[in-house]
Structure to design on (175 residues):
């Protein structure tokens, strides 16, 4: 309902390729938008026995323990995750993503990638210093945004701008 104040955003299996291959790096996400602002979220990582939750103004928690993002400010001292997908239909896009990956690698300590919500959970609990992904949809972002922000982090699009859920909701029929 486009007139509703609240919108639930669900990703029943984030990291579908990992799950299908029998790998443990997958999760379930549920986020709540108040108009276009994330106000609550949950991430379940079944293979790891972890449940992350956050509500606006109440902090972020993993299995009942308060979590915080890393205090490290220098990415050269941080583990960083980067999710990248191949785009056979658009080789130029794949090349741009690979070029960005090359630039990131030059400025970090070490690269990680499950290309799933596991990467963002690691940011929320302070194991990773950052995570980037150019190919994501609204359901890939709402839950993890509120959890990372409530854990003290900053969550933006790949260009460093605030997330735009208004346009994503208006185009959700295209996804």
């Amino acid at each position: 309902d486009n007139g509703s104040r609240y919108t639930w955003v669900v990703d029943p299996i984030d990291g579908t390729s990992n799950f299908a291959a029998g790998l443990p790096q997958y999760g379930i996400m549920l986020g709540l938008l108040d108009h276009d602002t994330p106000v609550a979220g949950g991430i379940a990582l079944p293979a790891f026995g972890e449940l992350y939750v956050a509500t606006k103004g109440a902090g972020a928690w993993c299995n009942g323990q308060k979590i915080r993002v890393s205090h490290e400010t220098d990415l050269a001292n941080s583990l960083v995750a980067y999710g990248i997908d191949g785009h056979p239909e658009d080789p130029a896009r794949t090349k741009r993503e690979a070029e960005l990956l090359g630039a990131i690698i030059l400025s970090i300590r070490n690269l990680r990638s499950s290309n799933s919500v596991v990467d963002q959970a690691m940011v929320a609990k302070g194991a990773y210093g950052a995570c980037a992904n150019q190919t994501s949809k609204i359901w890939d972002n709402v839950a993890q945004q509120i959890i990372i922000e409530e854990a003290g982090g900053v969550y933006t699009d790949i260009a460093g701008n605030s997330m735009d859920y208004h346009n994503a909701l208006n185009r959700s029929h295209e996804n």
Observations:
- Confidence is low (pLDDT under 50) at residues 171-175.
- Residues 49 and 105 are 30 Å apart (CA to CA).
